[in-house]
Write a structure and sequence with these properties.
Largest sheet: 2 strands, antiparallel
Radius of gyration: 16 Å
Number of helices: 4
Oligomer: single chain
Order of helices and strands: EEHEHEHH
Distance between the termini: 30 Å
Number of strands: 4
Helix content: 40-55%
Shape: globular
């Protein structure tokens, strides 16, 4: 089960969507939660990973930061690698938030909950605990 997570710039305000069982592409989940026809990100700079290719075409936002994908059979130039490294250093705070959530082992271990609503509630509590621990 995979939830989509989002975080603020300083690993604060970790939020999660409801979980989706099975295999779902991150970008497909985003489009199902936040339909393309509304301007959800108009006022924001958005930092994404390569799981969200096509975001810039579908959504309106101030600026989109997506790494440059390596061309098939070729290498990235030094300039492109530098751009990707800079973007990764900005995204790392979100990755740290996901790591904080994994401390509760909600995303790491296989949970034997067959009730998806209960799983979503437990995940929400874990995200709340992580947010609370940041404020201590």
């Amino acid at each position: 089960m995979n939830p989509a997570t989002h975080s603020g710039r300083n690993s604060d305000n970790l939020g999660c969507t409801r979980c989706y069982g099975g295999r779902h592409h991150d970008y497909s989940v985003l489009k199902s939660i936040l339909p393309v026809d509304k301007e959800w990100f108009k006022k924001f700079k958005v930092r994404l990973d390569l799981g969200f290719l096509g975001f810039a075409k579908d959504y309106v936002c101030r600026k989109v930061f997506i790494p440059i994908k390596k061309p098939k059979g070729k290498e990235l130039t030094d300039e492109q690698r530098e751009i990707n490294t800079k973007q990764a250093s900005e995204r790392i705070t979100v990755e740290h938030s996901i790591g904080g959530l994994k401390r509760y082992r909600i995303l790491e271990d296989r949970l034997r909950l067959h009730n998806l609503n209960l799983y979503n509630d437990v995940l929400g509590v874990c995200a709340g605990l992580w947010n609370f621990s940041l404020n201590l």
